[in-house]
Amino acid sequence: MKLHWSPKSPFVRKVMIVIHECGLSDQVELQRSVVASQLPPNENVLRDSPLGKIPVLVTNEGLALPDSRVITEYLNDYSNSNLFPSRPDEKVKQLRWQALADGLTDVLLLWRIELSREEMPWAGLTDGWLVKVRRTMQLLDHESQELRAEDFAIGQVSV
């Protein structure tokens, strides 16, 4: 397998944790791929995924899987690991934490891009993102005991 990766991507870091937890480090070739919204799309990444985003995992069969959620579930199933619980009530709890963490990361990445613009950041955007970040962090803080008590799975990896 081949993974387009960068050490700066929080979504790549999530995939890397899953690769290690699933014992697949020796089965995944890491291909350093620079991708940034302010740069032209990376041709090597575009060859494997038209979205031009990382992470992208190319399976042994040549199927390119974009998005850390898809990649992590594939790796879990490929290795017969248990990072995605089989019981529906446990699984939905883990998927919810994953969605909250990934959504928070999306907002923070957009916020960082907005703050780096030469013009002044758009306060309407950044003010709204501040509310969303605080609310999500409050919720995760409120649920931190439960996060610690649950078996280690994709929710904890994502958070």
Describe this structure in words.
By secondary structure, the protein is an alpha+beta fold. It is 55% helix and 9% strand. The chain contains seven helices and four strands, in the order E-H-E-H-E-E-H-H-H-H-H. It has helices spanning 10-21, 43-48, 68-78, 88-115, 123-142, 144-149, 154-158; strands at residues 2-5, 29-32, 56-58, 64-66. Strands 2-1-3-4 form a four-stranded mixed sheet, with helices on one face. A hairpin with a 5-residue loop joins strand 3 and strand 4 (64-66). Helix 1 (10-21) packs parallel to helix 3 and helix 4 (88-115) runs antiparallel to helix 5. The longest helix is centred in the middle third of the chain and has 28 residues, at 88-115. It is flat, with a radius of gyration of 17 Å. The protein starts with a strand and ends with a helix. The model has no long low-confidence stretch (mean pLDDT 96).
Mean pLDDT metric: 96
Major β-sheet, in short? 4 strands, mixed
Spatial gap, N to C terminus: 25 Å
Which geometry do the CA atoms define?
A: flat
Order of helices and strands: EHEHEEHHHHH
Features of this protein?
159 residues, 4-stranded mixed sheet, 7 helices
